[in-house]
Each structure stands twice: as structure tokens, then as C-alpha cells.
Amino acid sequence: MFRLESIKKYVYLVLMVALVTICSCTQIHYSTDPDARLYFSCDTLTFDTIFTEVPSRTSSILVYNQSNDYLNISEIRLREGAGSSFRFNFNGKIPNENNELKNLEIAPHDSLYVFVELTAPENEDNLPVYIEDELLFTVNGNTNGVLLNAYGQQAITFRSHSFASDTTLTKDHCYLVFGYLHIPEGTTLTITEGTTIYFHRDAHLIADGNIVASGTSAEPIVMRGDRFDHINDVDHTPYDYMPAQWGNIYLQNSTSHYCFTHTHIRGGSLGIMLIGASRSNPTLQMESCIVHNNSGYGLYIQEGVAELSNCEFSNCGVSCLTQLGGELQATHCTFANYYPWGMREGPAVAITNYVLNGNRLTAFPISRCVMENSIIFGSIGTELELDRDTFTNANYNVYISDCLIKAKQSTLPYYNNITWSHNQNDLIPGTTLYESDTVFVNTSIANRDEDGYFNFQLAIGSRALNRANKSVSARYPTDLNGNNRLTDGHPDLGAYERMLPNQ
Length: 503
Prior knowledge:
elongated, 7% helix, ten-stranded parallel beta sheet
């Protein structure tokens, strides 16, 4: 038994020595073929527009060795050297101060990652500036590589900033907000036509003072997220189309006044929050505005006074409009909710005069709610919710007239001359066909090249055509796009007038 164990140990030792000897004699064979080259997952790596002095997202390139031998990469470098705006690392290795790496290997039929990012330098021009470089790889004396390019946009950056006095923002600059931008009580922020304000993730606009945002149809004011790149999905969806790219707009001083004209607000979290008090209400005027694609509310009014005309509120994760107490006048507005980014928590429009928290009811009297010549529509069966407190008899002064509403027909006294939509799952009476409402041009992300991304203008044959109250339209003769809605004598419901071919 002892002799057998000794033999086993001896054989094992011999095998190990042989294995070590074989491995030590194996040498890596590097190709010296002058035609050997590397291949790349792209020939040009393009970064979407980035803001100067703000690092870009990190992008990647795959480098392939398609030969049967190891390749020695004698050098990897950026063409512009130490002066380049780009940065890279190859398979986790960081280049020297001249943006160079030396003598790296890549195995046969293998691939490795290069990660690239950049910081655009500051410039004096408000227009985007083109930035270019090249990432070069040298193998056996041959050099090839990948072109790198981007546009750098100069911006005035606000980092958790509070204005000390009245301030005006103009289209001569674009603006980037980190953290928050605050308007103190007693001051006014004026925003002129054509101005764009970009908000970084979780950045907010907080107003204790006043806001006067005066855009035009040709040069609207834009408030949006700061990402210009696309999601890696089948639709190559821009992040600018996505909700929750930035924070909220808080209009929270009960004695302040907020006025928005031709202002496009999109891609936020809770949209606009207008918060007042029982004895003092802030006032909000919105004319020809678009509030689109928020993960929460579009416009939330709590004991405020709001006047809305020619406005589109669309695609919100909760409601496009919620009124909790206060006053509201909405004329020729489109409330359209086809939110595609998850389950929604409410109808397109909700009007209520109380909040129930456990067994405690808090009344929020509605002194006035008038909605005229508007559209309340969306992807669920009931897109309007009127919820009245029946215990305290708090005011619920609601009047909705000459509107297209996606809901079951109601005989409640709040309604006058309503065009009720059939549920899309209902059979057409006397037939075996299902009812289908075609109201808007495009209610999805699909067909955006042909019809526009979520185009809430009126479709051919829309049930909203020619149904507006003419006397109400006469007070608002121009639609959101600047078209005259009185030209044909039959104005349409909602924010958009459908123009005939010869108009």
C-alpha cells in the first residue's frame, strides 16, 4: 500500500514538471504581417451636443483582431495629443499626459473595449462649436482609427442659484440649471422669446417671486432636460422625448403672479405645481403653451387662480390637469393623455374639492371652474373625473360647456352641449363593429417622421371639428399655431384649428 501511494505521488510530480516545461516553452506569436490591421465597431463616434465644461456621457468602441495571431498595438493615441478635448481608456488602461498608450496586445479573434468621453472647452460664441479628433491605432507600422466628433454648446450655468434682483434671460444665451433656480419673493424673472433653459436631472425651478415668460409662435420659450443623446432602443428614442429627465416647476408664493406665453415645457417630473393658501391665491396665466410628457402631473393647481387658453397638456403619468380648490378658466385647450412610459395613476383631467387622509377630510372649495371649447381625451375609458365632497358642502362651482370628452355620457348639471366619446371597446349600435374614435393626428411614438411625435393636432374626420361655440372662439380667434380659427366660420374644439388645404 505504501509503495502504491509513492508511485502515485511520483507520477503526479512527473506530470506537473512536464506541464510546467511545456508552458514555459510556449511563446506568444505576434503577427509581423504589414497588412495586419484592427477593425472597429464604428468608423465615427459621434457625441450629441454637449455643454461646455460639463463632462459628456461615456461612449464605447469595440476593437477587433480578426487574424489568427496576436497583434501588438505599438501605439494608441489621440491625434490632438495633450490638447485634445477627448479622453479614453483602453481595456482599463489610462493613457499618459500626451494621451498615448504603448505596446498593448490583443489576442487572435478577440475584441476589447475603448471608452471615450469629452469635455467641450469654453467658447465665446453662443452657437454650437464643432469639435473633432481621431483615436489612432498603430500595428506593424500601419495606422488606422476612429473619427471622434461632437458639438459643444456654450451655456450660462446656474448651480443651486437664487437671483438677488430682477433678472432677464434672453435667447442670446442658453442656460443650464443644476440643483435649482430660485426666484425670491419680491423679484421678477423675465424670459424673452426664443430662450431655452436646460435642466439637469432633478433640477427645479422654484418661484417665490414673479415670472413673465413671453415667447412667440415663431420663437417659443423652451424648458427641457439637458440630454441630447438617444436611448439604445429600436426607435432610437431621443432622451428629450422621455419623462422624468429633470425636476419640477414650483409656483409657490400665494401673492405672486406667473405668466407664460408660447412656452414649451417637457420631460419633467411633476410639471407645474401652483400652490396657494385658503385666503391668498397665486395667479397663473398660460396662453398658447405646451406642457408635455411629465412623469407626474402636467399642471397641479391647489388653491390657485389659473387662466388657460390655447394650451396643450399631454402625456402625463398622473393627470394632465388636476384642480384642487381655487379658480380655473380653460378655453380652447387640449388635454390628451396617451402616456406610454408606464401605468398612469389618473384621468386626463381631475377636478375635486377635498382631500381624504384616513378619516380626516380637508375641504378645498372650488369657487370657479369653467372649461369651454376644449378636448379631454386619452387612452383609457374615462378621462374626466369630477369628485365632489358631499359632507361639508364646500363650494363646487363647475361648468363645462362645448367640449369633447372621453367618458360615459352624464346628465349632471355641470355639463352643457358636450360631445361624448364612445368607449373604444363599445359596439356601434345595430352593428357588429367596434367604435373607434380618431381625434388626433398621431397618438404614439410611431410614425414620428411622417406625422410628428405625439401630434395632437386634429386628424381628418376628427369628432372635434366644427363643434366649437363661435361666440367663445371669437374671444380667442388665433390657435396655438397662430392660425385664425374663424376663417371658415366653423371653429374646432381644442388648442388647434385644422386648416383646410387652401387656407
